[in-house]
Amino acid sequence: MARAIVAACGTVVVPSGTWELTGVPAPPGRERPNNAYRPSSTWDEFDRRVGQAVPFSAGLPIDRDLGAISEAVRRSVDHVRGHHPLFSFLATGPLSEAVIAEVRLDWPLGPIEALAELDGEVLLLGVGHAANTAVHLAEQRLGRSRFYRYAKLAPGVWGELPNIPGESHRFDDLEPALRASTREVTIGTCRARLVRVRDVLQQATAAVARDAGVLLCDDDKCRCVAARRQREAVLGR
Ligand SMILES: [Zn+2]
Questions:
Q1: What's the average pLDDT block by block, 10 residues per block, for the chain (237 residues)?
Q2: Residue 14, beta-bridge partner list
Q3: 228 CA to centre of ligand 1 in angstroms
Q4: Which range marks the domain in which residue 53 is found?
Q5: What separation in Å is there between the alpha carbon of 204 and the centre of ligand 1?
Q6: CB-CB contact of 58 with 118 (8 Å)
Q7: What's the 68 CA to ligand 1 centre distance in angstroms?
Q8: What string of DSSP letters covers 16-76?
Q9: Ligand 1 centre and the CA of 75: distance in Å?
């Protein structure tokens, strides 16, 4: 299936994050405002977690919650993979080098900006907009969902990485605004949707600009709350 997607689409970009293997907790005493991430209670605990993690390398498997298709593309197709320690992307096809070149340590969603420049499209296969990473770019540009997270960088070395996206479980609230510009077919039991990255960015930007809390929930225990507070801080409230 991964080969069929690549054959049909030309250049394909998938998220290839490695949080499960490379991520570590925040170090003790380091709790940034509106970051929704608890630090380790002791240095012993932190050092143990750093010891268990592995540094990013291009051959690591992709986190399971990023979907079976991403990992299938990694395993079955020649590709280029960005070197972000937590939130990498990989790409295959004629424009893969140009897209992955936009990865920066301080701006992991650079490849989505490259896709928008190239007028690329988001393909949702059996998933909803909760899996649509382009929405995160719109909210980050408006100062929301910019979290600091921590990763093992090398043996005995860890680092803090900014602008890691947060919660997406309410992103399907964007569907009505995107319906007119979405092409949709059903393949067996799979609902397949195609929508331009530019349309996603335009609609998500308009929604967040109108209401700092849109596409977020009100659960105090959810990262959504911190994301909304970040946006309100940007607005000076
Ligand atoms: Zn939430």
A1: 88 97 95 93 97 98 94 96 97 97 97 98 96 97 97 97 97 97 96 98 96 94 95 88
A2: 90
A3: 10
A4: 2-235
A5: 17
A6: no
A7: 24
A8: ---HHHHEEPBPTT---TT---PBPSSHHHHHHHHHHS----TTSPPPGGG-HHHHHHHHH
A9: 32
Number of domains in the chain: 1
Q: Do residues 172 and 202 lie in contact, with contact meaning Cβ atoms separated by under 8 Å?
A: no
**What's the pLDDT at 2?**
82
Phi first, then psi: give them for residue 137, nearest 5 degrees: -65, -45
Distance 55 CA to ligand 1 centre (A): 29
Tokens of 15: 């998220």
> In the prediction, which pLDDT does 20 show?
97
pTM, to two decimals: 0.94
Ligand 1 centroid vs 54 CA: distance in angstroms?
A: 29
